[in-house]
Amino acid sequence: MNVLLFIICGILFTAAPAATREYLKDTAEKLSIEHAANFAYGALAAVFILLSASVALNTLLFSSFPASLKIMKIICGIYLLYLATRYYWKKRYEINTIRKPLFSAGFISEIRNPELIIFAFTIIPGFVLPHYSTIADQMCFVLLLTIICFISYAITIIRGSKTKTRLQTRSKTVNIIVSLFLIYSAISVSGI
Q1: Residue 82: burial class (beta carbons within 10 Å; 0-12, 13-18, 19+)
Q2: How many other C-beta atoms are found inside a 10 Å radius of the C-beta of residue 62?
Q3: What is the pLDDT of residues 47-57, one digit of tens each?
Q4: How far apart are CA 3 and CA 86, in angstroms?
Q5: Mean pLDDT for each consecutive 10-residue tract of the chain (192 residues)?
Q6: Which 8-state DSSP code applies to residue 189?
Q7: Among residues 47, 57, 45, which one has the least CA distance to residue 135?
Q8: Is 13:123 a contact under the CB 8 Å cutoff?
């Protein structure tokens, strides 16, 4: 398995335009870093739980139906192609209200986030399960993705709106490069 490709896909997913990132930026700007961090801790807990559930359920699924691994790899490839188109046509999420940024609000918003659920249940079988069979190895990748997500949230909170304005001048070029990389990743993972 190409671990670097896995890490880069994790970084690209966490940097993708999403309501959670915009909410964290707005909360850090309008309220405080502490409020945004509180929300981010809840979101991180949800990320870790969903990735752990993915390891458990996919391991069970693949031990019962080994042929399902190929299907999950194709689904992972399709999802990466979706991310590529999303990067290419990148839009800013509009957050109209700042709800109270509690740990529970961050947890609930991420645990029911369909994009995170799809990511969690496709990235592990697409990259990890074909090459690592022990739960300990698989959980190392779960921790790695959770750390990547933590770093992404921390950067979003600390830099606030500066990230957006700094990247706006080259946003189309960056979006095209990221989209091409995600298309490569989709082809690589799905085995096409």
Answers
A1: middle
A2: 17
A3: 999 999 988 88
A4: 24
A5: 78 75 79 84 92 88 80 79 76 54 82 82 80 88 91 82 50 73 74 68
A6: H
A7: 57
A8: yes
- Give the residue from 23, 179, 185, 12 showing the smallest Cα distance to 110: 23
Residue 41: what pLDDT?
92
CA–CA distance, 139 with 6 (Å, rounded to integer): 14
- Say how far apart CA 180 and CA 36 lie, in whole Å: 32
Chain-centroid distance, C-alpha 89? 18
- Residue 55, token pair as written in the block: 């390891």
Burial class (CB in 10 A: 0-12, 13-18, 19+), 91: exposed
User: CA–CA separation, 89 vs 186, rounded Å?
Assistant: 18
Which residue type, as a one-letter code, is found at position 190? S
Secondary structure class of 28 (helix, strand, coil): helix
Distance CA 183, CA 177 (A): 10
| Angle value at C-alpha 16, between 161 and 55, nearest 5 degrees | 130
- Contacts of residue 96, defined as CB under 8 A and 6 or more positions apart, other chains included, come to none
Q: Residue 165: CA atoms inside 13 Å, Cβ hemisphere, count?
A: 5
pLDDT tens for each residue of 172-184: 776 777 777 778 7
End-to-end CA, the chain: 16
